[in-house]
């Protein structure tokens, strides 16, 4: 005799796993890049790792807010943080990291020049580096090193000069600190000193905490839509004060070697 399933026991709902990684994308006036980049992020990570996407709209005055609202209907893992006014890229990244549920964060620039397809390899490299350097996983940062830069000559020159000055002062051994593609632990990032333009100095801040930074080669693409928000002056000169500030922080860092730590009492 064939029994029919009882309506008292409905089929279980599909299980939604908590995200392992949050892809944080700061944007300002990038309406035409919203859908293409989100679709690339989804294609790169879907079925690879549980993930969420967090866009931080830093006071856009174009169609960016409307495009993000549309994208949320197509991509349920997309969450949006919106600043009432523009606060800059570093604050936008910080707002996105703070809003994340996942323990790990991958950052991307919103102009489409970073390739989301590089993220899975960066996740794998993170695990290898933690084992090779015998450090806690949360103390590993993977930084992108852009290959065959698809920028104009002035932008390449300003980036080369800025990287050279920063590297000579901070000794962070990072050839391309300005690459927006990075992978790091959320909790570690939130413990960093917070200041404007800090996104340019994340490798140095990680090393200051005693962590490990590895630069890996990543793809770089030409900007196909929209207009760059950076020029020579705000890329090369505006961070000089911050550079000396990070140098000052490094010189005063102390990382004790803990030989004993009793467990805390529980009630």
From TrEMBL:
One of its GO terms (molecular function) is undecaprenyl-phosphate 4-deoxy-4-formamido-L-arabinose transferase activity. GO terms for cellular component: plasma membrane. Coiled coil: none annotated. The keyword Glycosyltransferase applies. Keywords: Cell membrane, Glycosyltransferase, Lipopolysaccharide biosynthesis, Membrane, Transferase, Transmembrane, Transmembrane helix. Residues 23-186 form the Glycosyltransferase 2-like domain. One of its GO terms (biological process) is lipopolysaccharide biosynthetic process. InterPro entries: Glyco_trans_2-like, Glycosyltransferase_2, Nucleotide-diphossugar_trans. This is Dolichol-phosphate mannosyltransferase.
């Amino acid at each position: 005799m064939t029994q029919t399933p009882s309506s008292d026991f409905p089929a279980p709902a599909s299980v939604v796993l908590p995200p392992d990684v949050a892809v944080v994308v700061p944007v300002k006036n990038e309406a035409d890049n919203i859908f293409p980049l989100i679709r690339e992020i989804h294609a790169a990570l879907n079925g690879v790792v549980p993930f969420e996407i967090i866009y931080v709209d830093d006071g856009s005055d174009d169609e960016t807010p409307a495009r993000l609202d549309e994208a949320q209907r197509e991509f349920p893992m997309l969450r949006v943080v919106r600043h009432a006014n523009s606060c800059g890229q570093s604050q936008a990244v910080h707002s996105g990291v703070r809003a994340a549920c996942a323990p790990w964060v991958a950052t991307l620039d919103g102009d489409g020049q970073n390739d989301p397809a590089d993220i899975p390899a960066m996740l794998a490299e993170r695990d290898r580096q933690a084992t090779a350097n015998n450090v806690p996983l949360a103390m590993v940062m993977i930084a992108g090193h852009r290959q065959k830069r698809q920028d104009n000559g002035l932008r390449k020159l300003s980036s080369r000069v800025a990287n050279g000055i920063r590297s000579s002062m901070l000794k962070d051994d990072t050839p391309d600190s300005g690459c927006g593609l990075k992978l790091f632990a959320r909790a570690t990032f939130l413990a960093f000193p917070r200041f404007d333009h800090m996104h340019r100095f994340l490798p140095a801040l990680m090393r200051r905490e005693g962590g490990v930074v590895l630069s890996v080669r990543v793809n770089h693409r030409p900007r196909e839509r929209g207009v760059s928000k950076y020029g020579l002056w705000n890329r090369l000169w505006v961070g000089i004060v911050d550079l000396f500030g990070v140098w000052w922080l490094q010189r005063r860092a102390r990382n004790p070697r803990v030989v004993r730590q009793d467990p805390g009492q529980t009630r």
